Amino acid sequence: MSVSYTIIVLWQQSYRSSTELSCYGSVNKKSDDLDIEALKTIVEQQAARMATLEGELTAVKNEVTVIKNGLPRSFQQVAFTVRFSTDENLHGILISSGQTLKFDSVITNLGNAYDASTGVFTAPISGLYTFHLVAMVPLQARNLDLAVIKGSIPVDHVYANSQSPDAQGSTQYTIHLTAGEMVWVQQVGGDGVRGVAFTVRFSADNGLTGIPIASGQTLKFDNIITNYGNAYDARTGVFTAPIPGLYSFFLVAMSPNETSPLYLAIVKNGVQLDMIFSNGRSDPEDQGSTQITIRLAAGEMVWVQQVSGEGVKGSNWTVFTGYLLVADKPS
């Protein structure tokens, strides 16, 4: 009996264990199913909420666009004030015919619509703009006429009379611009400078042999004594007339003691105007000189060119001078 009892007890324990394990496993499975269903529900709710938020965000973006487009222009700040950084006293800043004035000193440039490298203002947005321009004519310049230009068309002018000391002209103009349209200031009449003069020479001497020069060489005088109007370029040796008028040029040169005779020509645009001669070794320290007066149009060039001879005395012995006698009257 003890054996039988023992078997029954063991069976009952096994049965209970089996039942308990079975029940335990069944409870956990149901719990997992419930958790998954709950998570699915939460995910679906979050997805729906996300879709709602995306719709609301799109609506807000649309409202911002509408508000931005409807803002008064004062909220989209565009403004600039510019001027020249130098004065050049009585002679003013040189400007040529039809030149766009490039004001290099930028005081204010809200919206970065003014470009100092070109002198052009480009409207960043469409709207009504006001431009104010004031200009003073130099004492030694011709009458000054500047135009406010929109897309190559003059829309207003500033005029100053050179016969009135420190005369100023000014204007204010209001105009509608579409985004991308450009406005600038352009010279119409006057030159900004009337005093034009230069005196140049060589900085070295080189003694008895002088400064060597080659056949047909343009003499590049590197020592600038005077250069009113900055019309002489030491890099090229060329004078370029900044304005039309009557000019006078003077050239004096000495040939070195130990070189052949020297011939130099004053040349205008490749054409010889006049020539000087110096003996060289046959007449030590001989000098030749000439002076010529000629009318030049703006942009025409004058220089000194070797015709014959292999050297020229430098320093004070060879000097080239030119100056404006009378500027042409504006048409």
Automatic annotation (TrEMBL):
Q: Output the InterPro entries linked to this UniProt entry.
A: C1q_dom, Cerebellin_Synaptic_Org, Tumour_necrosis_fac-like_dom
C1q domain ranges (all copies): 73-190, 191-331
Principal cellular location given in the protein's record: secreted
Where in or outside the cell?
A: Secreted
Q: Does the keyword Signal apply?
A: yes
Q: Per UniProt, which keywords does this protein have?
A: Coiled coil, Secreted, Signal
Give the CC-aspect GO terms: extracellular region
In this entry, which stretches build a coiled coil? Answer: 36-63
Q: Which PANTHER family match?
A: C1Q DOMAIN-CONTAINING PROTEIN, CEREBELLIN-RELATED
**What name goes with this protein?**
C1q domain-containing protein
Question: What organism is recorded for this protein?
Answer: Pomacea canaliculata
